[in-house]
Amino acid sequence: IKGIIFAACIFAVAAVSCQKDDTLYYNNLTMGNVVNGRFVSDQGNIFTVVEKNCAEGWEDMKRAFVSCDVLRKVEGTENEYEVRLNACYSVLTKDIVNKTVADADTEMAVQDPVNIADFWIAGGYVNMYLQFEVRSGSTKKHLINFVLDEEASNGGKYVFNLRHNAFGESIIYNDNETVLAGSFVSFPINDLIKEDSAE
Prior knowledge:
Layout: E1 7-10, E2 26-35, E3 38-41, E4 46-52, E5 63-73, E6 80-93, E7 97-98, H1 99-104, E8 115-122, E9 125-135, E10 143-148, E11 160-165, E12 178-188
Parallel strand pairs: 4-6, 6-12, 7-10
Antiparallel strand pairs: 1-2, 2-3, 2-5, 3-4, 5-6, 8-9, 9-12, 10-11
């Protein structure tokens, strides 16, 4: 299974001239890791911010989902680019938990409602954008875990369960006090699943 959340719209094409112009003009939505202050996308591209259209940045993040305009390729490189950062969101990164461990933990055993709005595999991670209802103005942290059912998994087949614990935060549907919250989360799978054997 291979999935990449990568949406690119080409707004302009490099002008034709006597010399090759490798300047790129397109918007990029992608996820990746922050390494030594630079963003390395799951596709292997390296981004350096030279302009910003937003207050936030990835300086204090380990993994991020970004929206940026790719302005130009760094001369003499194959995959390094200067970008204009439009938005940047921190991505929660968590290890996959075995079902026996999750079932024995009272907090991880809870299965409150959660919506998987998007799901893809890239960069050695199972990536998701999750949505769940919360009380407006709430600061309560919710617990998310991706649980491997080891008994049901065999012969290259992997069975997972996504668990959400809202820690008792009461949800009243169709109420002005309820809002929809969202979060990006990534679960590393390279040590668990080999691409050529997974179903």
